[in-house]
Write a sequence for this structure.
């Protein structure tokens, strides 16, 4: 996305949150909002909002505020949400199934086209519009359908091995829930680690600070 | 935790990751590690590691490295993981159940003592050592067992209302999976928001950068 080169990763990282709030405003039929109103909603300063959004050319007009629909659509474009990257899920345990059933991938740039597990008892189980496939079929599947992203919901020991394999099969991005930090030796691979345990420990620290 | 006052939130936020790596080393029977080895494992610089860990008094010895067991136990103490805060889960849908079944709360400072849902068809269903209770019983339950933390796995519209109620019932910390940013008007409440959708959008941006 050469148009936005030079925008800092921290601004990019805040965009999904802007997107979420703006989507909610649109759903509530709000089509125009001042930076002051948006800032109080999002618990940011108005000047931070102006600074963040100016990175992309400035959607706001003095005295008018932001056009919610235009801003939402532009942030969606920046994030690439209008694409449909084919994605597969590896590991249909409790967490994997919840992710598959709970998330609306389609609205976030991804399209779930396959679910794989090594547990033969799960193979054939329907999940949404799909059925769980045997992990042995992964290679053929990837060669036929060329998925671009993989969601890893498998235990740590299995994660590194399968990640290497998936990269060779053409996967470009990982949404990684395994307890393994995927620090890829491949510069052209995107990884988004979700460490739920780390988040819970952080909460524990905060609660213990309050209750001390 | 007055001993650690003045330690920056960003250092605190990195501690769970240290804890996770050190726990893994201990599991693999490694009891001593140099900052250089730890840094290559964690993909950090050795000087950042020394700087982070020196905040708490410096566990390393020149020429010896870090004592894995001592460091793990001390970081666990700082995070408060040896406590057992009583916690309840609100919302036994796909995500809530996965969280309840998948996480080992006990090793992270929390003890899950109740699961609540408003869906009468779910009430009575066993989940691990518990059964799902009717949300109508929440108030009595809290008065009797005084839980300190709540995990919110409910849709956005319900989240704010129930959060207010839970605070009045004595909850001090929220692990929040609802799509609502809990920005509490109560300074003494800890909140750890987990926005899985934001993480997925960030991955989408990264993948679209690679595939452009």
């Amino acid at each position: 996305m050469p148009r936005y080169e030079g925008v800092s990763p921290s601004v990019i990282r805040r965009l999904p949150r802007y997107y979420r709030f703006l989507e909610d405003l649109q759903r509530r039929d709000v089509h125009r909002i001042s930076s002051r109103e948006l800032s109080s909603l999002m618990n940011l300063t108005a000047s931070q909002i102006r600074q963040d959004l100016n990175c992309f050319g400035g959607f706001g007009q003095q005295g008018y505020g932001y056009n919610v629909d235009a801003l939402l659509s532009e942030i969606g474009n920046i994030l690439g949400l209008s694409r449909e990257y084919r994605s597969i899920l590896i590991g249909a345990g409790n967490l994997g199934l919840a992710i598959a059933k709970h998330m609306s991938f389609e609205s976030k740039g991804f399209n779930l086209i396959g679910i794989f597990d090594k547990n033969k008892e799960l193979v054939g189980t329907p999940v949404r519009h799909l059925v769980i496939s045997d992990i042995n079929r992964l290679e053929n599947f990837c060669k036929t359908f060329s998925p671009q992203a993989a969601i890893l919901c498998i235990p740590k020991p299995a994660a590194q091995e399968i990640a290497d394999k998936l990269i060779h099969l053409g996967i470009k991005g990982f949404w990684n829930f395994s307890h393994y930090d995927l620090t890829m030796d491949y510069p052209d691979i995107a990884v988004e680690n979700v460490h739920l345990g780390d988040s819970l420990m952080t909460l524990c620290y905060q609660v213990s600070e309050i209750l001390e």
Chain B has eight helices and nine strands. Chain B has a mean pLDDT of 89. Chain B touches chain A through 64 residues (CB under 8 Å).
